[in-house]
Design brief:
GO terms for molecular function: cobalamin binding. The chain is of the alpha+beta class. It has 2 helices and 7 strands, in the order αββαβββββ. A hairpin with a 3-residue loop joins strand 3 and strand 4.
Amino acid sequence: MMTPALLSVALLLLLLLPGVPSADPTLYPIRVVVENSVNNSPNKTYSTSVVYRGILLGGLTRLQKSNKGFRFTYTQDPNYGPFLQSVNGLAGSQQKRTYWELLVKPANNQTFRPDVGIGCYIPNPNDLIILNYAKY
């Protein structure tokens, strides 16, 4: 049986281990820009945050809960995970050959397309996340 002091030390170590979420995680700022390259609508920029090593889906969910002007939906693909379906009421369409493209512009200003989606991409602090409505 553990003594109270030993138990306290064990709990403290558990909280400090990398990869173990803490009760009060540190939040890192990111910005989300919603673009529409199909209709050339004005861009909308939002600020949100992600926890350390947290996924973009968490940041988008946090944004949706804190800002009534931002809404998104996604579907869960059994092979590829969360798939962004709509942003602010505008959905991608197979008939119109449109989709939501995920782009990232980090601090070095070199925009890239991640090889993972919103359920796996881990933003860095101050990343600019671009959700672009595009044609294929």
